[in-house]
Amino acid sequence: MLGYLLAVMSWELGITAVGYVFVWTVLFRKRVSTESWRGLLRRTWPVWVMLVVIAAWSIYNYKSNYYNPTPAPSPQLALQALGISLFALQLPMSIGLYDPSPAGFEMLGIALAGLLFVALIVVTVLRSRRAWRGWAFAVLGWGVPVGSVVMSRVGYIGVPAIEQPMYYYLPTLLFLVGVLEAWSAPWRPERDGDGVDVVAADAASPKPPRRATRVVGAVAVAAFILAWVSSAWPTISSTNYGMIGPSDSPVRSYVTNLVASAQALQASGEQFSVINGVSPAGLMNFQGHNRLSQVTSVHDPTIRFDAPEGPWYAPDPAGVLVPATISWSAESSPVPPFADLSTAGITATNAAGGFCFTVDTPTAFVRWSLTAPATGGPLVVRTMATVDAATPVRVSTVTNPTDEPVVTNVNPRVWTTDEAGRLDTTPEPQISAVVIDSMTVGTTMCVDSIEVGTVSVG
Question: What's the pTM value of the predicted model, to 2 decimals?
């Protein structure tokens, strides 16, 4: 009980442990206890009640204190993320052939892992009627944790959200437990002509395995150990150093310089705003968590980012803030009939000032299509708007007219009633359209203008 409490306090995926205990009890009932269900529940119900209470408290704690609302991915995007997760990460990781840097090695791992697990499924299911229980546990062991990441992060980060090896420690353990359980399931007994199980006369003293079987087993174990050892560093590096950078990396001074220069500007009394962007890859390479506003907030949360009006500053290659300007190249139509705007799931209102509407559905959006694509970089979007109640608002850009929207900054961000506008930066090389969505149903929003510009530093 104490171990479960400590687990859920340190990592949210630990909440699923009580679910796996229940699944294990259902799938492998006789392995857990020979008691009847009623007897088992009568004896263990206090433990189950406490585990459920801890799990419910943890879910409430994380939801109310740690998480902001995020848009769910589309069914197509969710299936794409799950497919990549299973075939490009989970299966290769399970046999130790995971290294995404060399493309050839990555494809080799995917191919070998796929063939191996197809063979395992066929062999185990043919030889044992109980093997499906192990495979069911393996699928749930992978699917529940990864599915949680897909539903909570792929919608605003994209498929790269599930490509972080740190999310696969627990799924890999549970997946392999299920696979081993399927492999160790009792062999399907022989049957006579009447369909009755026949126990071999020498079952009590089974023959030792053949020499070839022992050799193949030993070679397989050695190969797996070597593969796991060889993939250990790529996994560790992509999880840690690829995420926070090594301690001796020169870019570790980047944030120090940025914070120090921002504090110097604050001390001078100048009102300024920092134009957001992506932190250096060697410092933080975790999409969705690598924005400058996120990285610097750990050191100084008072630094102002993304104000719609200047003066603006942006970091130079060393992280020192220098003056920046924005050249606005395109602006949405400021007056009716707003011909360059397309919408869905909203009701236009007659409120004065800008394009005003009420959100009717969770999938509502406003899309501004530019007359000609804006190019250059870095590109920035300025949205001037007001809302009648605080609501999440996601701003995305469309690179080519037929492409899916790409989220900007850390989205969705809460738009408050006293906010008149904000900036959103994007690493995309071109903007053909801007999409605003993820608003709360019932919210009234008035968009005064949407502009696209190019940032110049120095």
Answer: 0.59
